[in-house]
């Protein structure tokens, strides 16, 4: 979309004003904030737009989302709000969709590009926080923190014994990273520099030698990664290619003492196969922040003790969630031609639509 482009004359809602002027009176363009978000971030948007928001945070069914988007030129979304061909076809006035998430598998980017709709996400601002959490989840799984806490809370701790909740070490172990983008690299640095781990990784493409050296990480094939890792961390983006990248066959290659941590997206790991491998102790433990079909969790994962489960909170520090919300707002404001970056949103996913 060209800088400063407005939705003038493109209002498919027939009468709902997506225009910049009505009867000679300048009008603000309308945007939709699809989920509850920090009130001051909504206020920032109101400086530029008419804003319909969702303070009650009710999840709108798709038909309602489509209806509420009528007349809106922009949408502030989160990773669970679908923006696909059907939504776009019903809302041809839409110009920008701005995710408060680094992941964007809720967007059909190709369909957006075909319609000239800008897509943005929130990279970088969550990298270190998410890497911290991935490391925490890996350590909790390896050292059996959830499992032992539940034991204590159930009142079953009556005496100390020598092999009580023995787990596996992090320091000096082999850290395997599947997906070596920004977050994978941040996890590698923690492992190599903080915990003296040997770091191996597998990625679609090998990293530059300088980045490998800085992360002290060696590139290996996927099969070797699975066989050699003491602790496997998954940080791949979700796509049809990464769907079930870890299933029964891949789990069978892992060491029985190994842990698996998934902070990427549900669907990359076959959760049913993982629950079976955990129940049969074919791997030692897992840490999961994301799930296939979340917020529903596979019932077998809820019954195996050797898994730490968290509700998709890897980026959830106050500072980072605020940074994500503000970056999504910066993107929306700039995409629709306002603010200091008018026409140049900070993190476009399909910048080709910005070209005049
Ligand atoms: C992200 O930013 O993609 C996180 O998973 C939150 O949705």
Task: Write up what this structure looks like.
This protein has 356 residues and is α/β, with parallel strands linked by helices. It has two domains: 154 residues, Rossmann fold (3-Layer(aba) Sandwich), CATH 3.40.50; 183 residues, 3-Layer(aba) Sandwich (Rossmann fold). It is built from 13 helices and 14 strands. The strands form three sheets. Strands 10-9-8-11-12-13-14 form a seven-stranded parallel beta sheet, with helices on both faces. Helix 5 packs across helix 7. The protein is elongated. The termini are close together. 44% of the residues are buried. The N terminus is likely disordered. The chain binds (2R)-2,3-dihydroxypropanoic acid. The site of (2R)-2,3-dihydroxypropanoic acid has 6 residues, from loops.
